[in-house]
Structure formats: C-alpha cells, structure tokens
Design a protein that fits this description.
The complex is a heterotrimer of chains A (572), B (266) and C (254).
Chain A lengths: L14 E10 L2 E11 L4 E5 L6 H8 L7 E9 L2 E4 L11 H13 L3 H14 L18 H15 L3 E5 L7 H18 L2 E6 L11 E6 L2 E3 L18 E14 L8 E14 L3 E5 L6 H9 L6 E6 L2 E2 H11 L10 H12 E4 L13 H12 L5 H14 L16 H13 L5 E5 L7 H18 L2 E6 L2 H6 L3 E6 L2 E7 H6 L4 H10 L41 E4 L2 E3 L11
Parallel strand pairs in A: 3-7, 3-8, 5-6, 6-7, 12-17, 12-18, 15-16, 16-17
Antiparallel strand pairs in A: 1-2, 1-4, 8-9, 10-11, 10-13, 13-14, 18-19, 19-21, 20-21
Chain B lengths: L16 H29 L12 H41 L1 H15 L6 H8 L3 H28 L2 H8 L4 H22 L1 H14 L11 H11 L2 H28 L4
Helix pairs in contact in B: 1-2, 1-10, 2-3, 2-5, 2-7, 2-8, 2-10, 3-5, 4-5, 4-8, 5-7, 5-8, 6-7, 7-10, 8-9, 8-10, 9-10
Chain C lengths: L2 H9 L1 H18 L5 H36 L4 H12 L5 H13 L4 H29 L6 H8 L4 H19 L1 H19 L4 H10 L3 H29 L13
Bound molecules: iron/sulfur cluster.
The site of iron/sulfur cluster has 12 residues of chain A, from loops.
C-alpha cells in the first residue's frame, strides 16, 4: 500500500516466489513452486495435516519453522502472519496487545490504535455491545477472538496478510461469515491475502484462486465427491424409534437451595428405518452428539423413550445400572439380556477414536472382549478369525490386532473404531462426527470405507456431523438441529437443494463456500434467548419470534420445518 | 495404509519429555537401589568385628546410618502411599454412592492439609511420642494428603475416559468395566501417586532427625549424623552423610517424577 | 502495598491471623514459662523475616534463570538456570541449613548465610518449574502458539519474550509457590534451631526436646498461621503481576 503510487509495467506483485523448495529433513514439502499473488487477490492454499502449509507460510513470511530448509527465492512486501490456532498472550488484556501491534507498525498511541481497531471490528461485523477489549483473550469467546485478530490486521493494513488455518475450529456458518468479510476487506483495500487451511475448512469459498498442496506441488484442487459411491437403496420399515427424547443435566443448586438443571435436548422424535442413512446436522450446541448418545442409552436420556425392535431400551438399561455394581450377574437377568441384545445391534462410532480404546490392552484383546460380551454364540477359537475379517473390512491389515492403541495413527484409530463397531454384526451404526479428527484424503478414505461397509451390510446409519454437504451426500434423510431442537427434517435431496429454514439455508451456504445470511454468533447454552433460538441471528426474525418457540409443521409430504416465517422470501 | 506414515507437521508431537522422565526415573531407581545395597553391605566394610560407630571411618558410618534412614523411609512411604490412595478411593466411592458434594469435600480437605506445614509434625512427634511405629505413622500422614490429591485427580480423569463408554457400548456390565478396564488402567497412576510419598517421608524423617527429634539414636539416620556434625562443627563427619542424603533425596524425587511422567504413556 | 495483595491478605485473616493469635493466646495460657507468649510473638517475627525475603528473592531469581535457560541454554545465565533446575531435589532447605550451621561454627556470619540457605531451594524450585514451561512457550507445540503469533505479527523479540513467553513461564512458578513456602518453613525451623536464632521454630524444637506438649503445640499452630500468611502473600503477588488485572478500562472509549 505504501508504494501504491509507483505505477509501471515492472511493478512487482506483493508476493512472488521463484522455484521455492522446502525440505523437512529429507522429505520434500514443496517442490519448486512459482507463485504470484496480486494486490487485492485472495489465494487459498489447501492441504491435509502435515502437507506443509505452515512451512510454506513461514517461508513466505521469512520465519522458517525449525528443521525446514529452503531453496529458491521468495519475495514479499510488508506483511502480517496470523499463526495457526489464533492464540494471543492468554492473560494480557486484548486492548494492550492490539495497541502493541498497531502501535508497533503505525507508530500510534493506545487511543488511536484502539480507534483503528474499532473500525476494523466494524468491518468484521462485530456489534459494539460485544466489544470487551479490557478482557484477556482467554476469557473471550473463540469467535470474538478471531474477529479481533482479523480486525487487528485490518487496523494495521499490511500489504500482505498471511493467515494459517484462519478461524479453524469455529462453526462453519460463523467461519464463512468472518472469512468473507476478511476477503471483502482485502479486495477493497488492495491487500494480497493468502489463506491456508485444510480442504474441508471452506477456504475456497471466499478465495479468488485455490491451490491444493498435494505431494509437494501446488495444483488446482480436485473436486470432492458430491454423489454417493453407489446409488442408495430404498430403506425398509422403521425399527429404531425415539419418542420425546430429552436430556437435562443437574446444575449446582440455586441461591435458595432449589434444584436446577440445564436442558440441552428438548423432546426429539425420530425414526430410523432399516438400511436408511440419517444425517443429524448441527453446529456447536445443537446437541446432535447428545441425541446420538441418547439413542444408544449411553447415558440414557432423562425424558422420553428409545425403542429398538419393540423393546424399550431405557427400561432395559435403568435398573441394572444400580444393581450391577455389586454382582457379576451375567445373563441371568432377562432385562439385561435385552439390553445386551440391543447393544449388539446398535454400535457407536466415537468422535475421538484414539481415546475410545483402552490404552492398557492390544486392539485384539479389546475386540475379543467385545465378541465375548456381545457374541457368545461365536466360539472362542473362531474369534480371531472374526476379528481379522472385521479389520480387513475396515481397511486395516489383520496384524493391527497385535498393536497397542497408542501406536496407532489417528486415521488408523478411526478405521479400528469402525472395525470394532462392525465386530458384533450390528444393524445400526450411530456415528458422532466419526471423521472429525481426520483431514483431506484420510477423511475421504474413511468416509468411503464407512459407506462401503454400510452398503455391504445394509446397515442403518445415523451420522451426526456439522458438515452439511458431506453429511447429506450419502444420506437418505437429514435432520437439522439447533439448540437441542429439530428445526427442519426432509429427504436429503430437498435439504441439499431447497432447504426452507433460515438456519438450514445458512448451513447450506456455508457448505458451498458462500456467505451465510446469519449475523453474530451462537448464544451459549446458558443464555438461550426466549422464543426461537435463532432469533438474534436470523434475517427473517420479527417480534413474534421472541414470543413462541416455533413447532415443527409439515410443509410438504415428509418435509417438516420449525419456523414462524419459513415462507417469507429471504431478501424480503 | 502407506499414506499414514507421515508425521503431521502442523500438529507436531510434543518433544519426548515422557521418555526423558522415564530415563530419569530409571536412573533414580538405580541410584536408590545401589544406595540400599551399599548400606546393607556396610557392616562388611566396617572392620569385621563388632561395629563401633563412632570410631568407624565416616563413610562407613554414613552407610550404616543409611540402613535406618532408608528402611524407615520405605516403611513410612508404603504407609503414606496406601493412606493417600485409600483416601482418594474413598472420595471416589463417596462420589458414586452419595453424590459429588461429599467427594469434593473429602478431597478439599486433603488439598487444604497439603498446604499445611505437616512436616513440622514429625519432630514434634519424635519429641513427644515414644515408639518408632507411631513416628512412622505420623510421617506417613504428612505425605498422605499430597498423594490423595494426585491420585484423586488421576482417578476422576480416568472415570471420564471415553473407552469406558466404549466398553459399556460393548455390553459389559459395570462390574466388568471396572474389573477389565478401570483397574488395569488405574494401577499405574495410583502407583505413581503413591511413590510421591517416598521423597516426602525421607525428607521429613531426615529433617526431624537433624534436629535430634527423629529416629532413636540406636537406629542411626543420615539426618541425625548431619545434625550432630553440624553442631560439632566437624566437616569430615558432615560431608558423607549429607552427600548420601542428598543423593537419596534426588533419586527418590527422580523416581516420583519419572513415574508421573511415564504413566502418561503405556 | 498493591491492592490485590491487600485483598488476599484480608481474605487470609481467618486462616492466617487467627491461628497465630490462637497460638500466642494458647501459649500465654498453658505454656510453662511466664513470658512464652511474648517469646512466641518475637519468634514469629524472626521467622517471617527469615523466610519472606529469601522466598521472594529466590523465587524471582530462579524464575528468571530458569526461563533464561530455555532461551539461551549455553549462556552464563542459562547455565545457572540449568544447574538450579537440575539440582532442585538435591538441596533441601534443612540440609543447606545444616551446611550453614557448619559454616557458622567455622566463623562465618549467620544472617546472610541463613538467607542464602533458604533462598536456594526456592530458586531451584522456581527454575525447575519455569524452564520447561518457557521451553514449551517457545517451542513448536500448541503452547507456543502465542509466541508464534506475536512473531508473525512482527513484534520485536524483546516484546515477544517479555509479554508473550515470560508470563507462561511465571504461571507455573506461581502455582508451585505453596510447595516453596512449605519447604522454606521447614528450612527455617532447621536453621533457627541449628544456629540458635530466637525464631518460633527454635521455640518449638526446644519445647519438643523437653517433651513439653504445652510448649510446642501453640507454636505449631502459630507456624501454621504463618504459612497461611506467606501463602496469601504469594497469591497476592500472583494476582498483582497477572497481566489480566492490568485492565485498560480507561481506554475503553474507542
Ligand atoms: S422463527 Fe423467527 S427467528 Fe426463528 S428462524 Fe423463523 S423467522 Fe427466524
């Protein structure tokens, strides 16, 4: 920006590299890359974990990470680098840190620095009421911290802004809104903006140009799979029913000693048919994970009923929980047998597969235990064979049975989790963000394996995820959840093309890289607004939304929406 | 699965501090074992006949003293470790039986006691009470609250572990979850917490003996010899027991650290 | 005195001042000597004077040396830090007190030696906690995020170390202050008894030697109160240097 007046044909771009090569030990992270980013251009670089994005940004910024060697040349104008994680000094008030950075670059005092920062926050769309500069970053919500970081960059106004995994970890709707605002600023002010992140972070949406860092080269990205692997089969009859399932957690007693509790799940009704894949879509605080666990009765929900093949699971799981601590009453209790039978049919996939294995046992020993408990009909000498089969079906080698959980990589642990889930030949898999710890190709591989397993065994699958498109891609039906309630449920095709609820529309927009039409961030579970939980962010909200919680109504056959004004056009 | 062999750069594994801790723990154990052996063999080094402690050479005398110090420390550490672990288990049990309030109170008591200068109780007990077993009990009590706090933290962390949920999903009854998963995983952290008592009781006993209020003179103790030499102003008698004591303390601390660091990795 | 320290001291009245008063009162009632209460009061002051400066100086120097050991392990300061953090458990306060007593018998003067003997364990403890924390703050793990960010934002190295790395090294030291206070109390009792200083610890040990519970127990109670007082001071200092309490509210008009 400082040399904006210097015009001419030889004007160099703010970021230029010439045959830039990066090596980590003897591994090539980047092979002779030539790159040019113009003023006002937004470039997204995507790549899975360990692909060398951080090293590339470090090389551009002139701060190579330890152990990385560089060859070739990189030239860059005055720049800021927003490092991965977006951490600031955790206990130092934000205002001081902002003033330090802005003052360092522009030579301003505290007051003018903060004024510039306030302008930046305006451009990031942070309402004035939410600005609490005097708090240290660790006491600010994650979303506000990222907005402040971007606003700090806006206040400094560098020629180049490099952002490593910007706004990663935020909900997609919030992240895309921030990224779009940042990209708008870069285009308007002629800043070269380089965003680096994982392919599933949706950086491609706000960018002008996308490059994927794969096998040490910067290539155009390969489009993700958008269609199911094999055509989906028609589901059969409903076998798993949830009726009015609710969950509330006890809180510390109130000031007058009255019992208090926090309800996170409000009376959900759900049917899962055989061979059906159901996507539970929702972001942080939507209680989709709580619902998934309630279906498994791990722990049982505090209200409602879960029925599997005509048997009420909550009745089966409630009494033994109290009685089993003392005796080892295996199989002598008919109720327990019923629950065990249901456990054999309903198997979970955990969000952190590595933590779901006992570190003190090999995989094989744990699998053996599962078989012993759930499949007493399989003879002990047949178990190993069964375990090997399951491991191979889940994409691992049979030798994996001899390994300890701590020796598994994250991806292997995910596949091992899948192997354990199919060990007992279940009918339903209930997966809570099963691929959230994986990235890029590992993620695709895992999801493909999961779908292949599902198709081969004609399993029902309940897939809780915050990735709208990915969840619906392989699903028959989708359920969009917000703050412990279902706000829209329809078949997957409808949700992917024409959702009606404003929240579903925002999630769809975020998934496609567009700007979601929601403002502000999600309220915390302790401070839900009265009436519709979305009303502080909703573009359609009117006064009546504050008065009544919208109920699900059927707007078309098989399509339910919970919104008072779903039929109002968005830009009306 | 060939593509899984790349170490992810953006999430680097933390440097091998657990391994380093393990190595330190191992060297601590080796040193302590060597010390114990040397002390046990000390009577052979002395001039063969009946041991006259005062005229024996200072190194042999210090080694002889080590027998009292080390065996007392071992006894008190076992006692203290058991007391602390029992305390933590009691708190955990209260938590599952009667609710989290009782659990929190039980553990808060241990935390508060750990901030009290309990080590001062040992010389007091040495002065006011007679028998050695009482002294051992008091010494064990000084270490127990710290052990209980750590053991309880480990216990409650483990109770929330995801693999217990996975075991329940596999249809295991609560009793079996405890037997097959909880106890094998608990043994190591509890042992690590219990070992924490060793350096504490060794230090407390030496401190009391240094003031002349610890073990009875017949048993012999590094602390007593150090204290005596310091009072008499005799550097030749001072150095060997002081060095051995420092070494033993370092080794005990290293073992405790190594256990605490190593138990994060199986 | 800074406000957070005063606040912590007021909070600590029931746990610190009450036991001390109770100890003094109890010794006036039950102790065999007539002037026991006055002696205890004087002894408490002596013990406080012995422990407080050595704790403060030792912790401060140990933290700095330990942090420096992570920044520049080969420099002189770094070597000292590494030495301190490595030697921690080798040098308990009471052993140093015995060494000091030996030196005093040989003709050295008591006060500076006593303070040194008590401050070395505190320094070791602080260095032992600060060094790995500083290493993590400067390293490539998740704790190093703040430093990487500050460098990426172009701040100069001095500011980065001072405001982004050092607080992360100080935090665990402040958390471990309670253990340092306990060690200092034990060391002080040993020192007073061996050097015949008129401190509370010496009173307790003398009474215990004489087998007089009435003389020893009140002193023990009072020493517990003194420990609580030192802990409260430590918490106050922690609040005081905590950057989060240096609020910039006056500039919030932006
Ligand atoms: S009920 Fe109102 S606030 Fe809620 S989604 Fe519908 S229009 Fe928006």
């Amino acid at each position: 920006m400082t040399d904006a007046s210097v015009l001419g044909a030889t004007k160099p771009a703010p970021v230029e590299t010439e045959a830039l090569t990066l090596m980590l030990g003897d591994r090539v992270l980047l092979d002779r890359a030539t790159l040019r980013v113009e003023r006002g251009q937004v470039l997204a670089i995507t790549g899975g974990a360990g692909s060398g994005k951080t090293a590339l940004l470090g090389a551009l910024a002139g701060r190579l990470p330890a152990g990385v060697d560089m060859a070739g040349s990189a030239r860059i104008d005055g720049h800021l680098l927003i490092a991965q994680g977006g951490r600031l000094a955790p206990r130092r008030p934000l205002a001081l840190q902002v003033a330090e950075v802005v003052g360092h670059h522009l030579g301003l005092d505290l007051r003018s620095s903060l004024r510039r920062m306030a302008d930046g926050l305006d451009r990031m769309g942070v309402p004035a009421a939410a600005r609490r500069f005097d708090l240290p970053p660790e006491q600010l919500p994650e979303q506000l911290r990222w907005a402040c970081l971007f606003a700090m960059a806006v206040a400094v106004g560098p020629a180049v802004l490099l952002a490593d995994a910007p706004a990663a970890g935020l909900d997609p709707t919030v992240r895309l809104r921030l990224l779009h605002r940042l990209a708008d600023w870069a285009r308007a002010d002629g800043v070269a903006l380089v965003l680096a992140g994982r392919p599933e972070d949706g950086l491609a949406g706000p960018a002008d140009r996308v490059l994927a860092l794969r096998r040490a080269r910067l290539l155009p990205p390969s489009p993700a799979r958008t269609e199911p692997l094999a055509p989906l089969e028609q589901p059969g009859a409903a076998r798993l029913h949830a009726r009015g399932v609710g969950m509330s957690y006890p809180l510390a007693p109130g000031p007058r000693g009255e019992a208090r509790s926090l309800a996170v799940l409000h009376g959900i009704d759900l049917d899962v048919r055989t061979g059906e894949t159901l996507a539970l879509l929702g972001e942080t605080g939507s209680a989709k994970a709580t619902l998934a666990r309630s279906l498994l009765c791990l722990p049982p929900p505090t209200a409602g009923a879960v029925v599997w093949m005509g048997r009420d699971l909550m009745a089966a799981s409630a009494p033994p929980a109290a009685a089993d601590g003392r005796g080892d009453g295996r199989g002598d209790d008919p109720d327990r047998g019923g629950l065990r039978r249901a456990r054999r049919d309903l198997q979970p996939l955990f969000p952190d597969p590595a933590a779901s294995f006992d570190p003190a046992m090999t995989l094989g020993a744990q699998f053996g235990l599962v078989l012993e408990s759930l499949r007493p009909d399989i003879a002990a000498d047949r178990r190993d064979h069964r375990i090997d089969e399951a491991l191979e079906e889940a994409g691992l080698r049979p030798e994996a049975a001899l390994r300890w959980p701590s020796a598994l990589s994250v991806a292997e642990a995910a596949h091992a989790g899948l192997a354990r889930a199919i060990l007992s030949e279940p009918r339903v898999l209930i997966a809570d963000e099963p691929a959230s710890s994986l990235s890029a190709e590992e993620r695709e591989t895992f999801l493909d394996t999961l779908m292949a397993v599902r198709d081969r065994r004609r399993l029902s699958l309940v897939l809780a995820t915050e990735r709208y498109d990915e969840g619906l891609r392989d699903a028959h039906r989708g359920v969009v959840m917000l703050a412990g309630r279902v706000v829209e449920s329809a078949d997957a095709g409808t949700l992917r093309t024409a959702p009606l609820h404003p929240y579903s529309r925002a999630m769809l927009a975020a998934a496609q890289g567009e700007r979601p039409a929601l403002e502000g961030d999600a309220p915390s579970a302790f401070a839900q607004p009265a009436g519709c939980p979305l009303r502080r962010r909703c573009p359609l909200a009117r006064e009546f939304c504050a008065q009544a919680v919208p109920t699900l109504e059927e707007v078309a056959p098989g399509h339910h929406v919970a919104c008072h004004y779903w039929d109002t056009p968005t830009d009306g | 699965m060939a593509e899984y062999d790349q170490p992810p750069l953006s999430h680097p594994v933390p440097p091998d501090t657990p391994r380093a801790g393990f190595a330190r723990g191992l060297s601590g154990a080796a040193i302590l074992a060597a010390l114990a052996l040397a002390c046990a063999a000390a009577p052979l080094m002395a001039d063969g006949s009946a041991v006259h402690r005062l005229d024996a050479d200072p190194v042999a005398a210090a080694l002889l003293d080590g027998r009292g110090s080390l065996s007392f420390a071992l006894l008190a550490a076992v006692l203290g470790g058991l007391l602390g672990i029992g305390w933590a288990l009691l708190a955990g049990m209260l938590g599952t039986l009667t609710g989290s309030r009782a659990e929190r109170r039980t553990i808060a008591a241990a935390q508060r006691m750990a901030g009290w200068p309990l080590a001062l109780l040992v010389p007091l007990a040495g002065g006011l009470m007679g028998p050695v077993w009482l002294l051992a009990l008091v010494t064990a009590l000084t270490a127990a609250p710290a052990v209980a706090t750590l053991a309880h933290a480990e216990l409650s962390g483990l109770m929330r572990a995801e693999f217990l949920t996975a075991a329940r999903a596999a249809g295991l009854a609560e009793g079996e979850v405890v037997r097959r998963h909880l106890i094998p995983n608990l043994a190591r952290p509890l042992l690590a917490a219990g070992v924490l008592a060793l350096p504490r009781v060794l230090a407390a006993e030496s401190f009391a003996s240094l003031l002349g209020l610890g073990l009875p003179p017949a048993l012999g103790s590094w602390g007593a010899s150090v204290g005596l030499a310091a009072r008499l102003g005799d550097p030749v008698a001072f150095v060997p027991p002081a060095l051995l004591l420092a070494l033993a303390l370092w080794a005990a601390c290293a073992i405790a650290d190594g256990m605490a660091a190593g138990q994060r990795k199986p | 005195m800074p406000r957070p320290v005063i606040r912590r001291l007021i909070d600590a009245v029931p746990t610190a001042v009450l036991p001390m008063l109770a100890g003094v009162g109890l010794s006036a009632l039950v102790a065999p000597q007539p002037d026991a209460a006055m002696a205890l009061l004087r002894g408490l002051v002596v013990t406080l004077l012995l422990t407080l400066p050595s704790l403060a100086v030792g912790t401060a120097l140990g933290t700095l040396a330990g942090s420096w050991a992570a920044v520049a392990p080969r420099s002189a300061g770094g070597l000292v830090g590494r030495l301190l953090s490595g030697a921690g458990p080798l040098l308990p306060g009471f052993l140093l007190a015995a060494a000091a007593a030996l030196a005093v018998r040989a003709g050295a003067s008591a006060a500076p030696l006593g303070w040194t003997a008590l401050s070395i364990p505190a320094a070791c403890q602080a260095a032992r906690l600060a060094r790995p924390a500083m290493g993590r703050a400067l390293g490539s793990g998740p704790e190093g995020g703040a430093v990487r960010m500050a460098r990426g934002l172009g701040l100069d190295e001095r500011t980065v170390l001072r405001h982004h790395a050092l607080p992360q090294a100080v935090a665990p030291v402040m958390g471990g202050l309670r253990a340092a206070v306990l060690a200092a109390m034990v060391g002080a009792v040993a020192l007073e008894s061996l050097l015949d200083l008129p401190g509370a610890g010496a009173l307790m040990v003398d009474a215990a030697r004489a087998g007089s519970a009435a003389g020893a127990v009140p002193v023990l109670v009072a020493l517990g109160g003194l420990t609580a007082l030192l802990n409260a001071l430590g918490l106050g200092v922690r609040d005081w240097i905590d950057p989060a309490n240096h609020s910039s509210t006056p500039y919030d008009g932006a």
